[in-house]
Amino acid sequence: MKMLSANEVGLPVERDKPILEASESNLIATVLNPACRTLLITAPNAGCGGTTSALTLAQQLAMSSAGRVLLVDASPSPRGLTSLYQLNGSPGLLDLLASDDMPGLLNQCVYPHPDLPFDLLPLGVPHGHGRHLLHEQIPQLFSVLSAGYRFVVIDGEAIYSSSYSLGLAARVDGVILVVRGEETRWEVAQAAVQRLRQANANLLGSIFNARRYYTPKWLYRYL
């Protein structure tokens, strides 16, 4: 997985280790920026590895910063974070957005995991609005979450799967777009970038996922 600048979608910077190392210059810049608290991970289409990328970023940030990190599931995918950690039916994001007492409900919705350096906020249970996010409640939610967490990483739906990711993208401090090597077409990635910019999203960069090496990988450092 590779972290790219917003102007270099599709161009590798330097990342192929699966999850643990956090040495990218743009990641360091993010950690050092006190105004960057909420980060949305999204993709042009489903299947690009957004959930894996969100897990990776949350772990990297937890290792790189002194503050606490929260990973939020904002995608109804049956293979998303909520299902992965067997939290289906547990209160979570949707419950907080529908609540009149977010601070009082928060402890019931956040789940620490013994094997992870960050906390989890599952999708939660629909409350009359289906699985749609109540965007007018998002600023209040971020205010509540930011009181206890240095970083809030959000695993969002793909841009072309739902309009809700674009609405959420306009409300977070930064957006990271995930593209999948040899599967995400360049034109699709560029169109997704354009849609994010039209939504006034702050696009921090891109993750180039599942890159294949046709030259031995150790040679790339000399190219």
TrEMBL record:
Keyword ATP-binding: yes
Keyword entries, A-Z: ATP-binding, Nucleotide-binding
GO molecular function, one term: protein tyrosine kinase activity
Family annotation (InterPro entries): Bact_polysacc_biosynth/exp, P-loop_NTPase, Wzc-like_C
Keyword Nucleotide-binding assigned: yes
Gene Ontology CC, one term: plasma membrane
Gene3D superfamilies tied to this protein: P-loop containing nucleotide triphosphate hydrolases
This protein's name: Cobalamin biosynthesis protein CobQ
